[in-house]
Amino acid sequence: MHCPALPQPGRIRACTGPGGVSPLPRLEPETILINAHQMVTLRGPNRPRVGADATHLGTVPKGAIAIKDGRILHVGSTEEMLRRCAGSDPAIIDCTGRLVLPGFVDPHTHVAFAGSREDELQRKLEGASYLQILKEGGGILRTTRATRNSTAEAIAAQTRRRLDAMLATGTTTVEVKSGYGLTTRDEIKSLEVIAQLQKEHPLRLVPTFLGAHAVPQEYTDRPDDYVTLVVDEMIPQVAAARLATHCDVFCEEGVFSVAQSERVLQAGKDAGLRPRAHIDELVNLGGAEMAARLGAVTVEHLVCTTDSQVELLARAGTIGCLLPGTPYMLMDGRYPQARRMVQRNLPLAIATDCNPNCWIESMQFIIGLSCMMLRLTPEEAITAATINGAYAVGLGEEVGSLDVGKRADILLLDVPTYQHLPYHQGSNAAVLVLKDGKVVVDRRDELHESGAEP
Ligand code: NIG
Ligand code: FE
User: How confident is the model at residue 1 (pLDDT cuts 50, 70, 90)?
Assistant: First the structure.
């Protein structure tokens, strides 16, 4: 039997199996990717992956994938794909020498903001802490001033550039929080910017309401009144306008207490917003117990969470969303104890946390940091950046793996195997990005052929 390695444009020649055995049921895709040196499918159980499941990537050598109507039609070997597409005329994308992955899912970002805070890096190098800078009116409060003083168009223009950078590095789904408005009008303005960007940008955006990101300066002496504003005014308006699917809170010393956080998340839950929470980034206040009580979808940071709290979260079905870029940028040397979390069966996602304190768009970089600083294996880090990220934003049935029926969010990377992703750092390996089956990033002409064995 002979099938061409790379068919010429035009109909794929009909081939039969050995001894002329009748072909498998035919496929009529619009596009096929073929000859991938390695294809990582992430196929597996329909749930966030823990333990051994988080190490099984479902790799296919010489892989191929077929696309129709923006969805995945078939996943398998190139040889089988060509046989099954015999007589059809799809567009063909040759992936020789390269790696195919599902598009990355970045499940935690604050990417909708105005301005920047590059001078705070100098303060941090001199030893200033994150909470000290915030207390002085810097940090989140400073970005809040910049965001309040910007028009929706200006915030959109700045955010669009970051979304472009995310897409260019292989992210196809991203969660985006409000949280730099801190008035009803300004929070809604940010969420409307996110809704507008969703209409015009190829990235899939998942909007989260984070009105409880900081106590704004006008409420410094009466934080409970601000919580009341969030609960009584902001949440009902955000939910009624369907501007968010999730509600978040920054539960931290000097920001919101456990009781205040619980008020916010409970009100969000009552209004149909799924709860998630920033906990234990700097100080352990007991946010894990609160998140478990509320059945939070995810908890984020987890830098100083105890083993028994991790066990509690695992029992509650919560996903741990680790943000290694944040301690990296804070330079305080404290990272989440990811291996202890793996041992306790907490499903893990990883995210950029892209914000003006931690301005990182690339999930490739976060995969590297997760291996180097959290000691996740490459398999665990890739699972956390794809399928577990998808479950973290409520889209586990739609994206995050290369499975028949899912959205054709596909990434072609200029490395031969997934082990190269955390290992070969500092450049962008993305060659081609497909969102819903459409090519949205194409760098094939910029890059030399890999020269690797097909
Ligand atoms: O997750 N820690 C709270 N929120 C963000 C930081 C936001 C900022 O500093 O602007 C985070 O790291
Ligand atoms: Fe965050």
Answer: very low
Q: From ligand 2's centre to the CA of 449, what distance in Å?
A: 38
Q: Report CA(233)–ligand 2 centroid distance (Å).
A: 23
Task: Let me know the angle formed at the C-alpha of 380 by 379 and 385, rounded to the nearest 5 degrees.
Answer: 100
Return the SS3 of 433. strand
Q: Is any ligand 1 atom within 6 A of the Cβ of residue 326? A: yes
Ligand closest in space to the Cα of 130: 1
Give the pLDDT confidence of 221-258 residue by residue, as tens digits: 999 999 999 999 999 999 999 999 999 999 999 999 99
Would the CB of 278 count as within 6 Å of ligand 1?
Answer: yes
Domain 18-102+402-450, CATH class in plain words = mainly beta
Amino acid residing at 134: L
Q: What is d(CA 25, CA 284) in angstroms, rounded to the nearest whole number?
A: 57
Q: What is the pLDDT of residues 118-173, one digit of tens each?
A: 999 999 999 999 999 999 999 999 999 999 999 999 999 999 999 999 999 999 99
Q: Which atom from ligand 1 is nearest to the alpha carbon of 357? A: 9
H-type helices in 249-362, by residue range? 258-270, 287-294, 307-315, 325-330, 338-343
In this prediction the pTM is 0.96
Is 143 close to ligand 1, i.e. is its CB under 6 Å away?
A: yes
CB of 281 closer than 6 angstroms to any ligand 1 atom = yes
Question: Which residue owns the Cα nearest ligand 1 atom 11?
Answer: 353
Question: Looking at the chain, which residues constitute the CATH 2.30.40.10 domain(s)?
Answer: 18-102+402-450
Structural tokens at position 285:
């206040």
CA-CA distance, 360 to 376, in Å (whole number)? 19
435 contacts 103 by C-beta, under 8 angstroms: yes
The CB of 179 under 6 Å from ligand 1? The reply is no
pLDDT tens profile 43-74: 999 999 999 999 999 999 999 999 999 999 99
Q: Outline which parts of the chain fall under CATH 3.20.20.140.
A: 105-392
Task: Give 105-392's CATH code, choosing from 3.40.50.850, 3.20.20.140, 1.10.10.60, 3.30.565.10.
Answer: 3.20.20.140
72 Cβ neighbours under 8 A, 6+ residues apart: 65, 66, 402, 403, 404, 405, 406, 407, 408
Atom index in ligand 1 nearest the CA of residue 356 equals 10
Asked if 281 contacts 258 with a C-beta cutoff of 8 angstroms, the reply is no
Residue with tokens 């290694």, as numbered in its chain: 324
Compute the half-sphere exposure of residue 12: CA atoms within 13 Å on the CB side of its CA: 31
Beta strand extents in 315-369 (DSSP E only): 319-322, 348-350
CA 88 to chain centre: 35
